[in-house]
Amino acid sequence: MKIAICGGTGFIGGALARYLELSGDEVVLISRTASGGGGRERWKTVSWDNLETDRGTLEGLDAIVNLAGESINQRWSDKAKRRILQSRLDTTKKLARLVAGLEHKPKVVVNGSAIGIYGTSETEVYDESHPVRASDFLSGVVESWEKAADAIPAERIVKLRTGLVLGKEGGALPMMALPYKLFAGGRVGSGKQWMSWIHVHDIARLIRYCIELPEMSGPVNATAPNPVTNDRFGRALAAALHRPHWFPVPGFVFRAAFGEMSELLLAGQQVLPKSAVEHGFEFQYPTVDKALQSIYGHGSH
Questions:
Q1: What is the pTM (predicted TM-score) of this model?
Q2: Nearest C-alpha neighbor of 185 from the set 228, 236, 229
């Protein structure tokens, strides 16, 4: 297949590009600049500006995957909040305009989203059928992002509601592992808050599965089938790193260090991948122990 990725230089996008290449697909990266760097030299890269004048590069695509957006792993100042929202809306609107101008439109667009859309709860279990009610900053951002994706004129839109993506190369895991590496790891806050996670290799596989399977459309939760509490996650991480799990971090310390963003780790949600499982997707890393051992254990990749 020929697949374009917006945000292909990020943690998930890079893993996806490598996986698609191994699957024999042709990868085109859409970036702010057309120059190489960040490992992009191996794939054709086109800039948004070039696409405005020459859309031919995107003719005949099988799919477009849009993962572009400012990282949420930062302190949420008012300026950062505006960037987090605007970067997602701007890219998705540009994409809608581009696809509208194509003679041969891609059959499917997989647009980034996040499980943050469900809000947070210690007791509720969320799947794709759960009603969405924006109740905080992140759920509001994701709801707006999904509405922007609805305007993309493709036959099929998949909204990939991503959980905590686990991998060595990026995302939140290296930051979460650091205290354990320093022998100071433990539960965060109460430790009872849920963490809905997915191995980076499984999310790359799931994206390609969504592209291939015509029945996959609308919201798809990109989370493993076995969410765990923060305390249970920490124990699995400690075991993978051969370190103790003993030094709890009080919630107020986290709030002081990270501000509003700390709620991502202090108030979780239990999210199940109902759509993926019902459509026959099989996770290579269904449990957090297996996922973290593969990342930090011997012979990890």
A1: 0.94
A2: 236
